[in-house]
Amino acid sequence: MIYSAANAHTAARKRITVSFPDPFVPPAGWVTQRSMAGGLLRERYGAGYVSIGITFDHGSILAGWQTGRPEPSTVPEPATEFVDHLLGRARLGDYLLDLRGRTPERVRHWLDGPGKPRIYSGSYYDAAQDSKFFMGLDGWGRGFDALLHLDTTTAARLP
Are 140 and 115 in contact (CB under 8 A)? Predict the structure, then answer.
């Protein structure tokens, strides 16, 4: 079975922090701690649930469904505070990183520490507030079993 959703929904952690400055959600967005499906699936299936997160360096996404007028939005390179920034500096283009294997102590320390991957929703995005669209994990490398990092994304096209 495959469960496909945004990173915030698939992360294999019991609780995550989500920050989403959506003007359509009073009061102008939210920062909250939530239980999401990925944490419940990991609890139920253990290592049988494999969570693959997706990050990207820059590009465009289709956003604006909440207004009924989705349009491509340009997403800049991530600020240095984001996990996505470091992954983008690898300059490998697109790559899949398996986080389950043995890693050097320095890398494991980094993966087990807190991290902020960016998140997006099709409902709303504002590039001027890019630093406010994130999820916080208490050991971001434990939230996912693998990461697919894309250098550049292109917004979906409507038929």
Answer: yes
> Per the domain annotation, does 119 fall within a domain?
yes
pLDDT along the chain (159 residues), means of 10: 88 87 66 83 95 94 86 94 91 89 84 87 85 87 91 91
Given a contact cutoff of 8 angstroms between Cβ atoms, the answer to whether 121 and 71 are in contact is: no
The two three-digit tokens of residue 34, written as one number: 């939530």
Note the pTM of the prediction, 2 decimals: 0.86
Strand partners, 148: 54, 96
| Domain span including residue 43 | 7-153
Give, rounded to a whole angstrom, the gap between the first and last alpha carbons of the chain.
Answer: 28
Q: What one-letter code names the amino acid at 142?
A: R
Does residue 2 sit within a domain?
Answer: no
The number of folded domains in the chain is 1
- The verdict on residue 58 lying in a domain is yes
Q: Evaluate the CA torsion angle 32, 37, 38, 42 in order and state its sign.
A: positive
**Cα–Cα nearest to 124, from 30, 21, 13, 35:** 21
Q: Is residue 134 part of a domain?
A: yes
